[in-house]
Amino acid sequence: MARYRGPKQKIARRFKEPIFGPSKALERKPHPPGQHGRGRRSKESDYAVQLKEKQKAKYTYGVLERQFRKTFEKAARKKGVTGENLLKFLEARLDNTVFRLGFARTRRQARQLVNHGHIMVNDRVVNIPSAMLRGGDIVALRPKSRNLVVVSDSMDRTRKAFPWLEVDHKLLQGKFLDYPNREDIPENIKEQLIVELYSK
């Protein structure tokens, strides 16, 4: 199973955003990492800006290059705006949906819940974090997993609502209604830059 295992706070400081969740390091050191982080930096090229945006999206959703490119190609084949389609597909991933429903505090934690077989989709256990959901799919915790401390702790802390999801806090389940609209996705990603990068 491939995933990023490196230092999280350095990535957060590079993009100046808490990509992996709340970051105390980002508050203490708001400048980029490295010995030249505080110094003057030359103007970035268009390619560097586009690449940086793609890397931000990959780190945010926990996707490596090969899978990200496949998702982009799928988005390009679908009717509509390619960049918006890309974000919609990323939001429809099972691990991201588990995170959005509030079952986990971070996407990494959500990925682990899925990998360990704690999550069911339409009453069937699914342990593939990249599984794509469709409108009407029901995502729920297995009955044996409903007393997990990490889940109860996350549910107590997380009460955000998203228009494309319905959450039942008592039954610990949610419904994926449909792909979200771009304006409803809270991530600070400039998807058009990613499209321009892959178009070269």
Short description:
The protein is α+β, with helices and mostly antiparallel strands and 200 residues long. The chain folds into two domains: 10-15 and 22-32 and 43-89 and 189-198, Orthogonal Bundle (Ribosomal Protein S4 Delta 41, Chain A, domain 1); 94-178, Structural Genomics Hypothetical 15.5 Kd Protein In mrcA-pckA Intergenic Region, Chain A (Roll), CATH 3.10.290.10. It is built from nine helices and five strands.
Q: What tags apply to this protein structure?
A:
Structural Genomics Hypothetical 15.5 Kd Protein In mrcA-pckA Intergenic Region, Chain A; Ribosomal Protein S4 Delta 41, Chain A, domain 1; 5-stranded antiparallel β-sheet; 5 strands; 42% helix; 200 residues; alpha+beta
Commentary on this structure:
It contains nine helices and five strands; from the N terminus they run αααααααβββαββα. The chain folds into two domains: 74 residues, Orthogonal Bundle (Ribosomal Protein S4 Delta 41, Chain A, domain 1), CATH 1.10.1050; 85 residues, Roll (Structural Genomics Hypothetical 15.5 Kd Protein In mrcA-pckA Intergenic Region, Chain A), CATH 3.10.290.10. The chain is globular, with a radius of gyration of 18 Å. Strands 2-1-3-5-4 form a five-stranded antiparallel β-sheet, covered by helices on one side. The chain starts with 7 loop residues before the first helix and ends with a helix. 31% of the residues are buried. By secondary structure, it is an alpha+beta fold. Helix 3 crosses helix 9, helix 4 packs across helix 5 and helix 5 packs across helix 9.
